[in-house]
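re: ur question from yesterday

yeah so i grabbed the chain u mentioned. its 396 aa long if i counted rite. heres the sequnce exactly as i have it in my notes:
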Amino acid sequence: MKKVTRSIIGFILCTCLLLPAIATSGFANTDEKPFVYSEELQERESKAIEIYNELLRYWAYDTKFICDVNANFPSFYGGAYINSDRNLVIQVTSTIDDARDYFSDMIDIEQIVFEEVRFSYAELKQQHQIIADKMNPTSCDTYISSITGVGISFQENSVMLYICTNEIGSVAEEFAKKVRDSVSSFSNISISFTSGMDTPCTDINPGNRLAYINSGSWYSASAGYWAYNGGILGIVTTGHTGLTSGSAIYDYTGAYSIQIGTIGTSFYGGSTDAAFVTRTNTSYTPSRFVPGHGFSLYSNSTRVMPEGALIYSRGDSSGHKTGTVLDTNYNGLGVSNCVLTNVVAAKGDSGGIVAGMGDATTRYVVGIISGMRISGNYMYYVKVNNVNSSLNTTVY
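ran it thru and got these C-alpha cells back, copy pasting raw so excuse formatting
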C-alpha cells in the first residue's frame, strides 16, 4: 500500500470518479501506445477464445461461474492455449482422430489445432498440487523456501516451478535440480528463475482512485471494476489491503474528505484476492471506460483467457499495459489459481483491471491485478469468475 498526501489523492479522485471523458484527462501515464493485432488476427483470436469458453461452459459444474481449473474435463484433455497464429490449440493424450470425433459434436473445429501430448491436464494438476502443498517460504529447508510459485505450461505440457535464486549459470541449474528433486519425481518440470519472492501490488487503480485509513494513516487504493452485489452497486478492488467489513473508503476533494462507500465483503486467500466496496454516495457515477487503452468493458459478461491470449491491464502505478498470458494455473504466495502474465507491474497496481478479447472499443473483464513476481515484475491476476463467485457479484 502506498501512502499519499491528501492533495494528491484529492486531485486524482475528483477527476477520475466522474464521467469517462473526464477520467481520461485525469491520468498522465499514457506513454505506452496500446498494442493491437490486425483486425483479422483479433477476429481469429476472439473466435478461438469464444470456442474455449464454450468448452469450459460445457464442462462446467456450474455454468454461471465457468472455471478453467475445476471442471468435468475428459480424461484425455491435456490443456489449451492460443498459438502465434491466434488459433486455439487443444491438447489431447488420445489420437487426433479420436479428438476430432469428440470435439466436433461440441464445437466448430475448423479453426482448432489439435496437438498430441504425453500428460493429461489431470496428471499435470496432480503434480502441481503436490508441489503447491510443499511450498513454504519460512521453511528451514533451503530448497523448499526458495520456491516462489508453481504453475502449469500447456505449451510445454509441463509443471512450472518458479524458484528464487541469485545464482547464475551452471550453479543455478544445479540448485534448481536439487529443488526439483526435493519436491517431485515428475518427469516434466520446467524451471523459471526469479530474483525474489512475490509481493502484493499494494495500491490499485483502473480508472478511479480510492483512499482509506489504516492504523491511523491515510493510504491510497483504486477501483477494479464496478459491479452489482444483489442489486447493490459498488466497486471491486483488491482484498489484501487488510481492510475489514465496514471500513470506510473515501474520496478527497481539496482539504476535506468525502466518503464514497464501505467495504462489504473482503477475501484474501484461496483463489480470491478481492473486496467489494458498497457505494453509499450516489454522487459518484460508475464508468466502464478504461483510460489509456481507450476501450470500455462489456456489462454483465466475462471471459476466461487461455495461455497465450492477449490481455490488457491498468494499474495506478504502471498505467495501461498489454501482454500475454503465461500460466493459467499459477499459485503464488497467499493466493492460488491465478493467471501469470508477462505484463510489467509495480507496487500500486493491485486491484487494477485486467481485460481481454473483444475489439478496440469494447473488451471483457477477465480479472483484477493481485501481485507481481519479483523477477521481471511480471503481474499475476485473480480470475474474474473466482472474484464474482466469492463476492457474489456481477460486472456492472
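noticed a couple things. Residues 1-31, 201-207 have pLDDT under 50 and may be disordered. also Residues 1-396 form one domain.
anyway ttyl
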